[in-house]
Amino acid sequence: MWSRQIEDQHYRFSSLRSVLQISAVKMEVEFQTSDKVPIVPDTITFRACRFGCREMILGAIALVLLFMCLLFVGLYAHSAVQLQEARTSARVAMARSCKDPPCLKTTAHAMELLNITVNPCDNFFQFACGGYTVRNPLDRDEIHDDILKQMYDLNQDRLMAILEAPPKNSMTWSSEVKLKDFYASCTDDFRREQVKGRPLFDKVFPRLGGWYVTNTTWSHHAWDLNTVLKYVQTDLWLNAFYAPVLVVDPSDPKKRIIRIDPAGTSPHMSWADYDKTGKVARDANINKVNLMNWINTFVEDAFTMERIIAKFTSTTTRNNEAKMLTLDTLSSDTQWKINFAAQISYRFDDVGVNGSTKVMVPQPEYIRELGYLMREWRGSQETLRKVHNYLTWRVLETYVQDLSSEYRHANRQLLVDLRRRGRQKFQSTQRYCFMLANRYFSIALGALYVNTHFDQKSKVKVTEITESVKQALEDMIQTNTWMDDDTKKYAIDKMRGSTYKIGYPDFMDNQYEVDAKYKELSINASDFFGNLLAANQQHKREWSRELREGEDRSQWIFNTYDTKLAVHWYWDEIVVPAGILQFPVYTHGMPHYYSFGAIGTLLGHFVHHLVDKRGAHWDKGGDRIDGEFGWWSKLTYAHYDAVRQCVVHLYNNVTHGSYDFNDDEKRTAAVDGDAYAAEAIAITTGIRLAYNAYKSWQKSKGADPHPPGLQYTPEQMFFIGHAQMYCYNRNPAYDLLFARSNIANEETRVNLALQELPEFSKAFDCSAPSKMAPRQRCTYY
Prior knowledge:
Helices cover 57% and strands 8% of the residues. The protein is mainly α. Strand 4 (242-249) and strand 5 (252-262) form a beta hairpin. Helix 20 (456-479) packs across helix 24 and helix 24 (592-609) crosses helix 27. The protein starts with a helix and ends in an 18-residue tail after the last helix. Mean pLDDT is 84; it is low at 1-51, 85-95 and 268-275.
């Protein structure tokens, strides 16, 4: 059965194969026949023309090629235009790019202080200043560091380099020569080691009537308190029993009057003083068996007198309103043991001071207590010896730093023993001598600083920035809702009429005027101690002139190299010294978004102080206005108080810490919003003024060049520039001390001011509610 099935299948496959073969032969014949028929007829007729097929195809191809050529030419021309436009745009972009050193330096500085891991909408201060502590760690002996301190330290280094450079003007009458000779004599350690303590014995002790330790024949009969006290107070320019100082006359700011303050104590002494006094005795060639007894008596006398003076100073009340008393009245209160008319007329010898001259006395009880003490003395030898030793000690304590190294070392050892904790840090000779040069030659030093380290263009540009900020304040006053019209008008008039001292006094451009201020001063490059005494006489002449002539509004309350900025209400002025117009707060060529954010916000802060609650108590001429409201109206004050209460509440909710208060408990320190409110309003308003001034500047002058690769907008850089002025680093102990003052620290100052400004939230796209964009804000202007 299986074999039959196989045969049947074989038959079927054979039949199928035959059919397929026949079909294949037929298809081959048909294909060969059909290939002879053309796909397209040999000719076609189109109206009356007959074209060959190939010619028509070639024509079509030519048309296509022509179209493609025209298209290519068009595209090429368009691309060339685009390329030219791109090149032009690139050239314009390069021209507007920040590529000059001040701009690049500013950008690099700003970027290195950032901490980009912090969200600026959470804590802007840490975002802007988070890198400062990393890049500026504190030295072992350092307790605090910030931007302005770094600037001042740099200014000091620059000034010391100027002092050590040869003078450009070699004339002996030149203030530069006198200044540099003074500094050279101070830093001449070789000469100091040669003379040791002899300047005291040769130039000072004879005028004191000798010294008990070195002169056992000292007699109270030949010693006159008033003669010695005049020499100590004026010729040596140090305080003993009291301190005469020049102050503004509260009844007439254009005048100066004399004020008598309690004074005449030094740091509490210990028996470590033996070393110091022993060296003085050695230099006097004393070789006595009982020398130590005399030293003990000297120290005990000085200590007793200073203890009495300190007690009188702390137990007598300082009056809120000082009394005006005649000099003869003060003399009478001391039983004429101190002749105040003789003392004060010796210091101010060409002003006409006499017994009827009135002086300001904040603590009249102190003078009376001094009188009671002197009544008890009754001129005894022991009493006068104590006074003599006290005055001698005041001289030693004041001038020991100006002697040879062993005296300075003994003085340092005393300070170490007194402080008794921590590692002590003392000034180098160069730093100490710079301090003295700054004290006696501040004008000459300031002129040299300006000539070397201040660009005149900076003065011009900062003046323009100031004018922009003033205009912003005027606009803000005009539109604010809490000032009435009369108050607005007075505020604008006062702000316009105020004086703005920028950079340095104009007279410093004239070297002859600078030199003339020191024409009566003689300096010897090889006699440092003699130079100190000569400089004291220069002080005496300057004080006499100021008392005689009264107000001189050409004076500056700061040195030109200081890194401060302030409002001076009773002169109705703002002072911006050249020292603060330095990088990174300001430098010529700095992008305006950063300079307005830095120096601009400071200017806004203090310009606002001219017309705020504090400024309202000083009129346009700088005269004090008594009363609760000043030149503000009662209505304006009431409206302002509502704004102020909002700010008080805002800052009262802030605490700093926690801090270790030397016990087991960690504590926080609260901010006193009531005390800080006026300053907080000035800071926040100052930022807004500077921002509005910058936007107006940008609108009229155009945008600043943008640094390549900078990812922040000009508006963002403005706020970064403001915050970075407050970057700081301080050790925990100083931070605790700062917190105990109950004022806002730098982080709070920056964050709370900026969170009140919608302009900031918009710049950084901070959505409410966030820490830097609260739902509720106080209304300022």
